[in-house]
Amino acid sequence: MYINGIGIVFNRGRGVAALENALEDGWQPPALEEGRPVYRVAAETLKDKITSGALRRADRFTKMAVLAAHDAMTDSGLDQSIDKADLGIIGSTYFGPHVTTFHFLDEILDYGHKGVSAIAFSHSVHNSAVSYVALSLECRGPTLTLTDFSFPFQSALLTAKMWLSQERCDHVLAGYVEECGKVMEYACSQKLNLAVDGKIKSLDFSAGPVAVPGETAIFFLLSDRPAKKSYGKIEKVDFSPPGQAAVDLLIVAADGSTKDESGYRQDLKAGRSLAGYSALAGSFAGGSAFNCAVAALTLKNQTIYPVPFADVKSGPAQLKQLACLRYDCPGSPAVVELQSCNI
Amino acid sequence: MSFKAVITGIGMVSAAGANTQETLDSFKTGRRSVGPVSIFDTALTCPVFEAKGFKPRDPRRFSRTLELTFHAVTEALQSCGLTQDIAKFKVGVCLGTTIASQINDLEFYKTFRSQGQVPMEAIDRFLNGNLARALAGYLGVSGPCAVSVNACSSGTDAVGIALSWLEAGICDIAICGGADELNLVPLCGFNSLGVVSNVPCAPFDRDRKGLNLGEGAGVLVLENQEVSAKRGNKSRLYVAGYGIATDAYHLTAPRPDGTGLATAINMALQQAGLKAADIGFINAHGTATRDNDKTEGAVLARVFGPQVKFLSTKGFTGHTLGAAGGLEAGFSALALKEGWLPASPGFVNQDPDIGVSPLTAVTDISAKYAMSTSLAFGGNNSALVLGID
C-alpha cells in the first residue's frame, strides 16, 4: 500500500511544505491558554474557499479534516484522475468532535429537551467529518470512522489495506483528526503531567512523562500502486513489539499521553536509531499519524530531520525501511512499517 | 464463494428480549415492549423501546452501553462454548456504537460548566468504556480491536470489518456487532430533527410518523472454518459478504435515488458470489422515517424485484442506532436457522411512494441466504449477506 499523497493541518500551518518547514525549523513554544500549553491550529489556517461554501456550517473538527483530505488528494497529483466511485475514506480519532458534543449539551442545558439545534446534533456525530469529506470530494466509495483510545489510526491503516486488497476501492484516504477543547484540556490537566514549559521530550522515556495537548488532522492518499511522487510504501501494520525488525530508523510516539514511557527503553537498548517528533505537534496529535507523515517525508527526502530536545544525528542518510512505534496506556504496542519505493 | 466466516455464537438484548429465546418469543407472538422513557427524566413524551429485561450490574463503573455489550457477549460466548479458553485463540473484537464514543454525561458537564472543575469519575468511565478495548481486556484476548462509529450502520460495519479480519487471517475468531443505550442526548437530537414519532413506529407504512429510539446489543461470534471445525462446532450459519458505499449527498438524509445503498448491496452480493435472486429475504433498516423507508423500499424493489420478501424489526426494538446492525444480523441468522420470519409490527397500509410491502404475518421460509441492510447519518450504506449450509 503506497502513500501517494499527504495532507496535514496542525499548529504550524497546513500542507506538506508546512510540515517540512516545521521539521527543519524545530520546536516552537505552544500557545498558553488559561495558563496551560496547547498546540492549537490557528483560525487563519482553516480559512479557504473549500471551507467557506458548503462547509460554512461545519465545525472546526470537520474543517480540519476536510482541508487535510483535500490537500492529500491535491498533493498526490491524482485528484483529477481518480474515479470518485473508487475512492474510500477512513477517518480515525480518539475523542471525535467533542467540542460540538459539549455545544449540544449546552443547548440541552440552556434551551431544554425540546429546544436544541438539529445542526449541533448532526455535527456532534463522530462520522460527520468523514461525511463532509465525502460530500466535498463527491466520493461514492466506502466511508468509515473508527475510534478508540489506543490505536485508531493504525486500525484505519489496517482497514485501508484490506479494502484495497479486497478491491472494494482503488484508493483510500485514511486519516486521523483530533481537536482540543476546554473540557478535554481540563481533563488532560487532571489526568496527565502537563509540560509547563510546553516541551514534550520524546526520547526521555521517563516514568513520569510530560504532555501538551495538541490538535491536528492528517490524511494519506493510499493506493495499491505507486504514483509518480509516491512517498513510500506502508509494508506492515502490526500490534506486536518491533522486536529485531531491521529498520533504519524507529520513530516513537512517546508524547506523554501514557503514564509511563519507560517501556520504550527496550527499543533503545536494542541499539536502534530512534527519533521522536511529538514536540512539533503535541500529544494526541495524530500520534502515529503525525509520525507516519514525518516518516514518509524522511523516506522520500532521504533525510533524518532534527529531533527536538535530543542529541540525534540529523541530515542526509540512506534509508530503506522505517517504523513508527506507539505504546498505549496499558503498554500494548503498535508498529507501522514503511519502506522506500526504491526497494 | 470466496470466504465464509462461520457464525458460531449469537447474543442479543433489546426491548424484544433479554436473550435470543426471549427475542424469538416476542417475534413469534408479536409482543411489542414500547412505552414512555423510564430510565432518565425528560420533557419528551415520545415512546421508546427500553431493554426492560436487562439489569445493569455496576452503573457507576460501567456505561450502560458497555453493560449491554457484556450482557450480549456473555450469551454469544456461552452459545458457542467459548467461555473458558477463549484467550487460547487469536481473537479480534470489533464493535459499533454511537453513544459510547461520546462523553454524553450531562451532570458531569453541568458541574464543569458551572464550577470550572469536576471529579474525573465520568471521564474515567468514558476512557475505560471503549467497547472493543474494554471487552478485549475483560476477556484477556489480544487480537485486533476496533470500534466503528459510522452512526446507524456502525454495527453492520463492525461485522463487515470482522469478516475482513478473518479473511485476511489477522485473527481466528472475531467478536463483532454493536451496542447502544437509550440516552437523553440522541433522544433530544433526533427529536430536533423532526424524525421522532409520537406513536409506536410503523416501518414502511403509508402513514408512518417517524422512528422510536431503542437500546440494546447484538453480538456475533465469527470463526474461520478451520478453527470452528477443530473446535467441533456444528453451526451451519455464516457471513459471506459485506458491502459499503456512501451517498455523498446530505448529512442526515439518504440520496433519494438510493444509488449508495444499491452499490453496497451489490458489493455484498459480489463478495458472496451471489445474485439478487439468491437472497431469500432482507432484514431492512426500516426506521419508519419518511426518507429512509421511501429510499430503502424503492431500492429493495429495484434490486430484488417487486416480490421482494423483506421486513423491519424496528417495530420490536426501536432504532437502536449503533446496535441495530449487530442485532439485525443476529435476527437474520436466527431466521435462516429457525425457518420463519416475524411480521413487521406497525405496518398496515402500503405506501404508494414505495410500492412494496414488508411481511405482515409470521412467515415460514426455506432460504439459504439473507441480507441485512443499514443506512446511516452521513450517507453511509452497508449490507451483509448471511447464509446457512
Quick recap of the structure?
The complex is a heterodimer of chains A (343) and B (389). Chain A has 343 residues and is α/β, with parallel strands linked by helices.
Note down, in words, how this protein is organized.
The complex is a heterodimer of chains A (343) and B (389). Chain A is α/β, with parallel strands linked by helices and 343 residues long. Chain A has helices spanning 16-25, 49-52, 60-76, 98-111, 118-124, 128-137, 152-165, 182-191, 265-269, 288-301, and strands at 2-10, 13-14, 31-33, 36-38, 87-93, 143-147, 171-178, 216-223, 232-238, 249-252, 274-275, 303-304, 315-316, 321-327, 333-339. The longest helix of chain A has 17 residues, at 60-76. The radius of gyration of chain A is 19 Å and the shape is globular. Chain B is of the alpha/beta class and 389 residues long. Chain B has a single domain, classed as Peroxisomal Thiolase, Chain A, domain 1 (3-Layer(aba) Sandwich). Chain B has twelve helices and twelve strands. In chain B, helix 6 crosses helix 12 and helix 9 crosses helix 10 (290-304). The longest helix of chain B is centred in the first third of the chain and has 16 residues, at 64-79. The mean pLDDT of chain B is 96. The chains are: A alpha/beta (343), B alpha/beta (389). Chains A and B meet through helix 4, helix 5, helix 6, strand 6 and helix 7 of A and helix 3, helix 5, strand 3, helix 6 and helix 7 of B.
